[in-house]
Each structure stands twice: as C-alpha cells, then as structure tokens.
Amino acid sequence: GEYEWHETVINRVREVSEELKRPIAILADIQGPRIRTKVEAPFRVAKGDAVFVGDISAETEFPKTRGHWFFLDQPNIVHDIGVDDLILVEDGLLQFRVMKKEGNVLELEAINDGEVKNRKGVNLPDSKLRLPVITEKDARDIRFVVGHGVDYVGLSFVGNAEDIRSARTLMAGEGIAESALPKIVAKIERKEAIKNLNEIVHEADAVMVARGDLGIELPETRVAILQKEIIAASLSAVRPVIVATQMMKSMTENPRPTRAEVSDVTNAVIDHADAVMLSEESAMGKYPVETIRTMSEIIANTEESPFDNVYQTIGMNLRSEYATMVRSVYELAKSYDAEIILLVSESGFTARLMSHFRPDSRLFVATNNQRAWNRMALFWGVDATLFADNTQLDGIVDRLIGKLLAEGKVKKGERAVLCLGRHNKSDQLQLVGVREIG
User: Fold this and answer.
1) Strand partners, 355
2) What is the DSSP code string of 103-153?
3) What ranges in 250-365 are assigned the alpha helix state H?
4) If you ran DSSP here, which 8-state letter would residue 372 be given?
5) Is the pLDDT of residue 313 over 60?
6) Are 241 and 268 spatial neighbours (Cβ–Cβ below 8 Å)?
7) What is the residue-averaged pLDDT of the chain?
8) Which of 146, 231, 351, 371 could cross-link with 345 by S-S, CB 3.0 to 4.6 Å?
9) Is the dihedral of CA 228, 233, 235, 236 positive or negative?
10) DSSP secondary structure string for all residues of 28-88
11) Beta partners for 184?
C-alpha cells in the first residue's frame, strides 16, 4: 500500500483506541527480502520437465532459446543456489530441484505438474542466502512507521540475532528516544531461524510463529511440533508469542469455521501463546467481524477449561533479582487465592513479567505511559488502564481501584495483591501488600 493509506489507517486506529479507552497495539509487518519470479508469459510444466533459471542481473546474456525459463528478481541470487537445492514457487505449489549450474544459469527438473506465473513468491529452503534481511524498501518502510509511532515492527525472514540488531540500529538512527521506538517481533519462518531459534528469541522483543513460509521451508508435517517448540522457547525467555497464518482461513468465504480450525486455535491457547492472529480472514474476507467474534469465543471457552490450567509455574531463563521479585508477587497472589493482581508499571516490563506466569488472578495494570499502554495489548491477560494526566505512579492505585469498581470489573470484598513496578530508575519492586477491595 501507499504511505498515505497506511497513515490514514494508523490515525483511525488511534482515534478508535482513544474513543473506546482501550489499548490497541499496531504491528507494522515489514516485507523483507521476498524473492519473486519474472517471466514474460505463464507456462505449464509437467513432472520431469527441464526448466532454466537465469540471474536477473545478467538478463541480457541469458540464452532464452533453451526452452522454458524464468528469472528470480533478486540480483546475483543464483550464486547462492547450489546443485540439488529445492526451488519452491507460489507457496510450494510448484517444486523444482537444481540439476546443473553453469555460471548464471540453473537447470531445474520439475518435481510436479503446474504453471509458472509472473511475480509469484519463491522459497529456497536449502540455500544459504546472502540477502540482507532489510532491503532498501524495508529501510524506507521502517523509517516511515517509526516516524508514525507504531508499537511493533514485524521483521520477516529473520535468520539470526544479527538481523534483529541491524533493524534496531536502523531505528535508533531516526533520532527518537529508545523507549519510544517500536519493539521488534521476530517472524520465525525460515529453516535457518529454527537452527538459531534461541539466539533470535533472546534478541527479539516478541516472536511470531509465521506458519505460512515455515511450512514451505520445512516439511509441513513438522509445523505443529515446531509451533510448540517456538512457543516454549518464547515463554522461557519471557517474550510474548503470536501464532499466525490460516487459523480461521475457511471463514474468508464461509460464516462458520471448520472443526479443524477450532481445534487449531484451541491448541494455540493451550500451548499458552499470548496472541492468535488473523490475516486474509479479516483483511479481505467476507466475514471479518464474525471471524473475530468466533475466535474470541474459542479463546474464552478454552481458557475456562481445565486444559488451559498451568499446574506448575512456567519456567523462565531470565535470571535477575527483579524477575524473582515479580515471581514472588505471583506466588503471594496464588497462596492467598487473591482474585485480583493490581500492578503499576511505567514501561510495561513488570506487566510483561507478571503476564508470563499466566496467573489465575485477574491482572489489572495502570500506567502513565501511552506507548507502554498500547504495547500491553499484546501481553496475555493484561487489562491496562492509562492515566496520562498523572506523572506520579504512586497515586494511581486508588484511582485504578475506583475506576475498576465503577466499571464493574472488580467487586467489594475481593482480595487483591497490589504492587508498584520499578520506576524512578530503581530496580526494587515496591510491594504494597494484600488488601480487600473497598
């Protein structure tokens, strides 16, 4: 889309968020180094047919008299492709294997019947690509979304932690305070990303299980297991994790989901993902509102079931005194059977840590930070309230309780654990204690 269109959408989302007094986090999905076919006219191939691929940077030298041929639109990409490598076109619908390589020309064998069309996506699961994870277009797009205050940037085709650091360096160059920069969501969709999963998860601010390309780069029969592994790694590193792609795909055309789709969303909730994501269902489907309503019902039913219970505290690799203190607040709420946990969190970090433990207590968070308020929309179980008119956190607790009582979210007589997150550059968690609402 054009920047003007995106700017309009961003402004509308912010207006709705303010009107509803509900945080809405905006995730800008960066395209990444997407490789596409270039062909003069579509052509059909049968299993076993020979097809030739040329390097777009040497297009004028390509011997087009050889028969069926197409180009890859990334210059010099052919150099990174070897004999026996797979080339998958149009989400893997058409598959080729490299049989020979001569300079800038690859000779492929078609593994199945199909049609090669122009501008279709290409995956190279066996090739170690030297493409930068941030293209020139991506750099322009990142500068645009940073300037418009989005909350998260989704980085496509991440291969290692250095890719995330590159994006962070680019954003830092825009002259905006670090605390105001978007957080980075690493999209796990490449074979290389699975190999480097732990380093990616620890460098990123959040993680997305991007099952579309992941199911092309790796055997689709492994995707469900990989999803569980990625979620587990994210939880262990205390990173919010999103499950995406085709969760309710049939509702693009139909008013009801398939039973398999209901099961898919249910299992993502049981695996303790922070969020489940819709794509074409809400972007261009016939039933966007019905899809979201149905997904919400699935989530609610699953979280009310015994299958969503966390019988043992979710482990984490974050070794810090502060994380231990937050865990102690969780344990206190658990031991007192407190119905409510009330947090005050300036940056959202304390809220993210508490969310990680998936407490049975309802979790209400107050903040005076607009950006933190938006970002907390992604955190599991967090009901956040913004007090933008109050720069002092200490006085917010009573105002929060009063607001929650007025909205009917809490009742007099319910037990609450209250604590203030770290602020004023202090690493101490100020535990106010246990009190009865009202």
Assistant:
1) none
2) TTEEEEEESS-EEE-TT-EEE-TTS-----SS-HHHHHHHHHHHHTT-SEE
3) 259-270, 280-283, 288-303, 321-335, 349-356
4) H
5) no
6) no
7) 91
8) 351
9) positive
10) EEE--S-EEEE-SS-EEE-TT-EEEEEEGGGGGG--GGGSSEEEESSTTGGGG--TT-EEE
11) 153
How far is CA 224 from its chain centroid? 17
| Tens-place pLDDT, residues 231-241 | 999 999 999 99
Joined together, the tokens standing for residue 373 give 């308020």
Q: Which of 26-40, 160-174, 255-269, 318-332 has the lowest mean pLDDT?
A: 318-332
SS3 content of the chain, % helix, strand, coil (to 5): 40, 20, 40
For 275, the enclosing helix (H) or strand (E) is strand 275-276
Q: How many CA atoms lie within 13 A of 100 on its CB side?
A: 7
Query: Rounded CA gap, 99 and 105, in Å?
Result: 11
Work out the angle between the directed axes of helices 136-147 and 161-172 (0-180°, nearest 10).
50
Task: Report the C-alpha gap between 89 and 96 in whole angstroms.
Answer: 8
Cβ count within 10 A of residue 334? 16
Report which residue type is found at 66.
R
Residues 98 and 148: beta-carbon distance below 8 Å: no
Q: Which two tokens stand for residue 358?
A: 């998936």
Q: To the nearest 10°, the Cα dihedral for 373, 274, 5, 173?
A: 70
295-301 contact pairs (CB < 8 A, 24+): 295/247, 295/248, 295/265, 298/262, 298/265, 298/266, 298/269, 299/265, 299/269, 301/266
Q: What angle do CA 30, 239, 185 make, to 5 degrees?
A: 5
pLDDT (0 to 100) of residue 129: 86
Per-residue pLDDT tens for 130-153?
A: 888 899 999 999 999 999 999 999
Q: Both tokens of residue 77? A: 């990409």
Count CB neighbours of 198 within 10 A. 13
Between the CA of residue 254 and those of 285, 300, 346, 365, what are the distances in Å? 9, 22, 43, 38
Q: Are 405 and 369 in contact (CB under 8 A)?
A: no
Residue whose C-alpha is closest to residue 74's, from 2, 156, 131:
131
Distance CA 245, CA 154 (A): 14
Q: Among positive and negative, which fits the CA dihedral 394, 399, 404, 405?
A: positive
421 vs 365: CA distance, rounded Å:
10
For the beta carbon of residue 287, count every other beta carbon within 10 angstroms: 19
- By C-alpha distance, which of 221, 217, 239 is closest to 230? 239
